[in-house]
Amino acid sequence: MSQDRFYYFDNNATTRVAPEVADAMIPFLRDGWANPSSAYRIANEVHKAVENARAQAATLIKADPKEVIFTSCGTESNNAAIHSALVTQPGKRHVITTSVEHSANINYAEFLRRQGYEVTLLPVESDGSLDIHLLEKSIRPDTAIVSAMLANNETGVLFPIEEIAALCRSKGVLCHTDAVQTPGKLDLDVKSLGVDFLSLSAHKIYAPKGIGLLYVKRRTRFQPYVIGGHQERGRRGGTENVPHIIGFGKAAELACHHFKSEYARVRKLRDRLEQEILRQIPNTFVNGDRENRLPNTSNIAFEFVEAEAVLMLLDQVGICASSGSACTTGSLDPSHVLMAMGLTPMRARGCVRFSLGIYNTDEDVDYLIRHLPPIIQKLRDISPLNPSHPDNQNYDVESARAKHEQDLAEAARKQDEQAISA
Hints:
By secondary structure, the chain is α/β, with parallel strands linked by helices. It folds into two domains: 7-11 and 261-417, Aspartate Aminotransferase, domain 1 (Alpha-Beta Complex), CATH 3.90.1150.10; 19-255, Type I PLP-dependent aspartate aminotransferase-like (Major domain) (Aspartate Aminotransferase, domain 2, 3-Layer(aba) Sandwich). Helix content is 45%, strand content 12%. The protein contains 15 helices and twelve strands. The chain has helices at residues 19-25, 27-30, 41-61, 74-87, 103-114, 132-138, 161-171, 190-193, 231-234, 242-280, 307-316, 336-340, 345-348, 362-382, 397-421, and strands at residues 7-8, 68-71, 94-98, 118-122, 143-147, 174-178, 197-201, 212-216, 284-286, 297-302, 319-320, 351-355.
């Protein structure tokens, strides 16, 4: 169907660029195009603008601007922090992270394993929380770094980073947190958190994609991940992405002054959406801790349906949501986050994430509530897994689920074979 408007509930994947951010960037696409590392006057003006943006980004996390390194994205920032911890401590070859991290950490951990490093993936509880005592037991004399996200991108569940960082300090271990999902939603203070490294990505706070930052605590040894020129005080080579840096700075300024108050409103929208879904649609469950989570995120399991089918029908009426991280879209595997929380593969494949942002309205929520219940009912009416289906009076749900799992596993195997042959 033709759709004049779409209703966006996938802000954890990315956010629209704020008009104020776009306006701040345009002069550096048209006129302020000089290389900030050059010596002449027009380049010096660009350099000053970059440093002003650095100060704006530093203010967002209450850091010193000299502690901020601009990168290309959150993934690079995560990789750079862990890389530096290992390179600057060659005698330490053990890394600890969690089983629910973003793929930037999970896949980098697997890469490190193949290079001969040892990696511990900490499990989580059924509500997505982390057992700090298990972390303490996992730290070894050769542990170089603990990397744990501040807020989970799929469930919004928060980890106790202050406690984790304090534990790491007591053990002489570096601490990194992926805080990509948190700015503008929670108050960020790197001094209170006590971490050595912190990652952010601008496209989560209404700035463009392709720009991120890594906070490196003063006096923390750091080995550059990208080797090149003297840019970023010698900590990341490559000519600066000036327009995007300016956009990041403006978005950070807005988050400090305006967006924080907006999230009280966003929380109310999220809570109303969640309550109506649970009230109107039976056999639905919220994944993760209901209290200790981001104010904008709701991850809901819908029994007897596949999330991809739900998302396809939502898209047909102009509603954008997701079944997990955008970085894993297209995979046949269930969410590693939900599986780590103990969900069965079947239930994990029936989960949809709704993540709201500052541009969502009551009208958006009303529209979603109006369309979602009939979509779920339509899919359940034809689902072979629905025990109330008329054809399933003698239906063995567990056997059907097992058969469905086998079919999906076979499809995944064929997909892997095709990938290898390609």
